[in-house]
Amino acid sequence: MARVVLIRPPSQMGDLVRIVSAQHPVNLLYLCATLREHGFEPHLIDYEVDAYSDEDVCRRIDEIAPLCVGVSCFTPQILAGHRIAEALRKAFPSLPLLIGGPHATALPRATLEEFPSFDAAVAGEGEETLVEVCSRLRDGRDLCGVAGTAHRAGGRVVEEAERPRIAAYGDLPLPARDLLEMAKYPGAAKSGAAAGVYRTTQVFTARGCPFPCTFCAISLVTTRTVRFRGADSVRRELGECVSRYGIEHVNVHDDTFTVSAKRVADVSRSLGESGVTWDCDTRVDTVTEEMLRDMAAHGCVRVAFGVESGSERMLKAMKKNVTRAQIRDAFGWARKYGITTSAYFIVGGHPDETPEDVDQTRSLMHEIQPDFANVAIGTPYPGTELYAQLAERNLLLDRRWERFMLYDRLPAWRTERFSPEDLVRMQRDLIREYFYRPAYVWRRLRKMRSWRELPYWTRSAWIGLRYVLKGREGYVASH
Q1: What is residue 20's predicted lDDT score, i.e. its pLDDT?
Q2: What is Dmax (Cα atoms) for the chain?
Q3: Within a 10 A sphere around the Cβ of 164, how many other Cβ atoms?
Q4: Using CA atoms, how far apart are residues 323 and 309, in angstroms rounded to an integer?
Q5: Which of 2, 123, 195, 427 could form a disulfide with 105 if both were Cys (CB 3.0 to 4.6 A apart)?
Q6: Is residue 167 part of a domain?
Q7: What pairing do the DSSP bridges indicate for beta strands 200-203 and 156-159?
């Protein structure tokens, strides 16, 4: 049986990854399960939980002797992914090396042109494409005509037609969690939930997001057409997670969980019946008080809302298209039913943002009082409207992809009003002003579900404090 290795490169978040913990690489586990269903033997190497070295990856590939190796990368990981490919290319000159993930999806041809150690790129949802690529390689055939790929042929890069996204998403096999060493994943994997306390996994009940936010790259891979899994498929996965892996908590990983009210009711019931607690990410304009009450009754303990900005001018410019009133309502309803709230905010999410807009974000943050506030720098990932806006205005300073980070890097771009240093300063100021107040600390301690969470929150507070107090000169020099 031909073996296929899939690799997740090391995280680029530094100490900050300890606040959220490493997520299970569920997208790769779907690929592994699909490969297995089609007669391949999948292997997973996860350098978000294993220490990386060139020697280690070459040793492991030599032991497995695979047909090919695939590396999955977000934009800031692409250099780390290419380092892996370079090491393998030197050690195994004829081994086919594939690149997939959001960066290769946005820039399939450019990725192969920039990173010569990769032989082919898999764009979009990879299950069907990867099976076809591996079948061709096993049979000694080239990749000409394989939809959803870019590949090298005759000394040039050929970009094939786009592959339609998987319509029958619910028919995919369940993620191959048996490939994980569960002890290496200490749980939580979401900001605002205590890592290392509850045995946790991530479950997708749908793919796709119908909303056009200018800063978001999700639709590049999954499109804006939402495809739902059947309730039986979701229940089967939940049952396996609980009975086989002892899962206690589930991150519902849908891009916008509450996009369908009937769907929310059905899935909430299934989650409740499985005996787990759970959380989800969603929008303030797709929830109602009754929906949140029902979610809480079926075990939902946390909801993260994409707030983004306190400025309605910016919310419109970013095509978020929600209002401050909707934001206040959603947080009030969640709080009423005992649901922990997280709020995602962005600074620099549009090139025309002003100091006054940021002040409105600060004001709203303190008004709605989320239990956890995640403040990111608006990052222009390739393929997003934000990337096009900044490129058109010559605001992209360079394309060093390792600097395309929400946190912990000096941005490789600026906006009309803010330099890269300004963006970092505003992010840190918002974090410091919100979290490091006696009132917030006392409220956080009172809302802990268990005193077992105390080490997590203490560690998170210390890591966050080091981040916000990091000197500008040291920050720039080290990154």
Answers
A1: 55
A2: 65
A3: 12
A4: 10
A5: 123
A6: no
A7: unpaired
Report the pLDDT value the prediction gives residue 221, as an integer from 0 to 100.
Answer: 85
Half-sphere exposure of 369 (CA within 13 A, CB side): 13
**Which tokens sit at 132?**
């076809």
Q: Are residues 300 and 409 in the same domain?
A: yes
Distance, CA of 193 to CA of 199 (rounded, Å) = 12
Bridge-based pairing of strands 227-228 and 206-207 is antiparallel
User: In what side-by-side order are the strands of the sheet with 277-282?
Assistant: 200-203, 249-252, 277-282, 300-308, 340-347, 372-377
Q: pLDDT over 70 for what percent of the chain? A: 91
My answer on whether 369 and 284 are in the same domain is yes
> Average pLDDT, stretch 190-202?
70
85 belongs to a structural domain: yes
**Domain boundaries, position 78:** 3-150
CB 42 within 8 A of CB 7: no
Let me know if residue 102 belongs to a domain.
yes
The secondary structure element, H or E, covering residue 349 is none
For the full predicted model, state whether its pTM sits above 0.90: yes
Cα dihedral value 370, 306, 104, 116, nearest 10 = -40
> How far is it, in rounded angstroms, from Cα 154 to Cα 146?
16
Would the pLDDT of 191 be above 60? no
**387 lies in a domain?**
yes
pLDDT band at 440 (very low <50, low <70, confident <90, very high): confident
Helices (H) and strands (E) in the chain, counts: 19, 15
Q: How many CB atoms lie within 10 A of CB 462?
A: 12
